[in-house]
Amino acid sequence: MKIRFLFLVLLFSKLLSAQQDVDTSIQTIVDDDPVLAMIDSMMATGYFESLGFNDNVNELNVYNYHKDSVPSFDSATYATRFKELNVNSPFSLVYNNHITGYINLYAKRRKKTTAKMLGLAPIYFPLFEENLDKYNLPLELKYLPIVESALNPKAKSRVGATGLWQFMYRTGKMYGLEVTSYYDERSDIYKSTDAACQYLKKLHSMYNDWDLALAAYNCGPGNVNKAIRRAGGKTSYWEIRAFLPRETRGYVPAFMAVNYIMNYAAEHNIYPVVPDVACFKTDTVGVADHISFAQISEALDIPLEYIEYLNPTYKQNFIPNSGKANTLCLPVEKIGDFLANEEAIYARKTTQDIKDSIAVAQNKVIAPSNHGDAIVYTVKSGDVLGKIANRYHCRVSQIKDWNNLHSDRLSIGQKLYLYAKPSYAVQNKKKAEVEREKVQDKNATDGKHIYYTIQQGDNLWDIANKYEGVSVEQLQELNKDVDFKNLKLGTKIKIKSIG
């Protein structure tokens, strides 16, 4: 009887201890946790707010969750999902209490940030996957920049690691990433991704274990080798984890948690919040002379923040005339405008240049640049600078400059002067609406067909693209009597049948 009682006491104690371990591990994500600190530092830069994110939750909410619902799952559910992920992965994607804390970090505490990273994923992941496949590396590594930089190509850590893949200066140089006063190839999404693949492949060849390769990517092979020695020669990440630097102890669990949350985001009521920059295609053009982003912004009417986003390699918002083939990334529809006005753009003085020159001539203090008429915004309960910047498609730093603010604190009723332009996507949407109205003005109908009147410069391809569901072949079939090789102005052609 006593033996049975003692056994029950020991069993209960073990269960209680296990429960305490779970609770303790979940609470390890404290305010100074390196991963949490990285996420929050990225948010503090105003990077996400400057991109103008939009969501379509109603279309993606397949589980019919309430908007503010934060689902929770038991350990068995997590274990089953990790087992499914692990089947097709060379990583040891096992569920344990260390990982739970980081799942909660991405799925609960920083849920909104995770949604924005999901929105950025279609922009970056195809590039990552292409390079990973080139080097025959696991595709799961595409999630690593989420842990490293929250998908911010201009991210910079407190110790100087830079870019999506957070290369230190020396490591970047080893893999051909140049850094000068004007540009930093660690922020070049193409070159840094290729370099990261080379480095990860080398690390894996050293350990023949992806968990250890990840740990070495974070803290360096030297620290991993020390941990292995201190663990008595053991080579499992979980066995040497206690001997690794504090940041690396959370790094690998965070990577596994990100793998999970990116695959089960909808189950956690998290959906992509898509940035405006995803709404247009881009292309690159060679730059023949030095030029500032401000010159490009004013000449082509593109928000400065979008030029910065599309060209993260340049450190000072300036492209130098360095004698090498410098390139500029722009929305496709702006490439022609740039090429047609290239010399004038190089010679252009910006509005701020002119103001600064006048101020210097008059011995005046240079004031912050105010573009256009101000919007006067009254601060309401619950407002913060980041929220206001997101709403008006500008940066927190701009609002502070415009209003001579020295801190982020706001008072209810306080007046803020905002000089922000509408987002680029909004501008494009308005242009598209104007074009549609023009098309509608040229339309006519006889009750059976919709007709279009040929205008200057029209061709069959462009006409078909003006109408949803209309192809060149359909136009040719409907208008067999029309010579499309010799279209004449004013000719009416059938577009499609009505009904």
Give an overview in words.
With 499 residues, the protein is mainly α. The protein has five domains: 1-30; 33-275, Orthogonal Bundle (Lysozyme); 280-361, no CATH class; 375-420, Membrane-bound Lytic Murein Transglycosylase D, Chain A; 446-497, Membrane-bound Lytic Murein Transglycosylase D, Chain A (Roll), CATH 3.10.350. It has helices spanning 2-26, 34-44, 57-60, 75-87, 97-109, 111-134, 144-149, 169-174, 189-207, 210-219, 221-230, 237-240, 246-263, 293-300, 304-310, 332-340, 342-347, 351-361, 385-391, 396-402, 424-442, 460-465, 472-478, and strands at 53-55, 273-275, 282-286, 291-292, 318-319, 327-331, 375-378, 415-418, 443-445, 449-453, 492-497. The strands form five sheets. Strands 9-10-11 form a three-stranded antiparallel beta sheet. Helix 5 (97-109) packs across helix 13 (246-263), helix 10 (210-219) packs across helix 11 (221-230) and helix 10 crosses helix 13 (246-263). The radius of gyration is 28 Å and the shape is globular. Residues 1-27 and 356-371 have low confidence and may be disordered.
